[in-house]
Amino acid sequence: MADTSDTRTPAQIEADIRRRRDALAETLDEIGVRVHPKTIVGDAKAKVVSNIDHTLGRAYVGVNRVVTDVKGQVVDEDGRPRLERIVPVALVVVGVVGLLALGTRRRKG
């Protein structure tokens, strides 16, 4: 059978109760802060900002890769334009813009 006698003095018991009460009060304060609406909103905002930063970072890397690939197609190793690739693309762009302009004029007129 376990010994249930307490050999502490009343002062020791009161000090122990005081320490436990202080620890409990601190824990309750922490819980109050965590469940406070401002804390919840702040945590949600921080998570959204973090996700946006991550997404923007990935998008930047992707766009940078595409720009580098396109630049590699239209510029040679010395940095000079590759006219054999630029001229056909420019002609196609001019043709598409011309067709769009003609289509717009026909709809208005």
Structure characterization notes:
By secondary structure, this protein is mainly alpha-helical. It is built from three helices and no strands. It has two domains: 66 residues; 31 residues. Helix content is 83%, strand content 0%. The radius of gyration is 36 Å and the shape is elongated.
Attribute tags:
single chain, mainly alpha, elongated, transmembrane, 2 domains, 109 residues, DUF3618
**Ends distance:** 106 Å
**Net shape:** elongated
Strand and helix order: HHH
Counted by DSSP, the helix tally is 3
The largest β sheet comes out as: none
Q: Cα-atom Rg, whole angstroms?
A: 36 Å
Strand content: under 5%
Quaternary state reads single chain
Helical proportion, percent range: over 70%
Q: Could you name the ranges where pLDDT drops below 50 across 5 or more consecutive residues?
A: none
Number of structurally distinct domains: 2
Average of the residue pLDDT scores: 89
Class of secondary structure makeup: mainly alpha
In total, the number of strands is 0
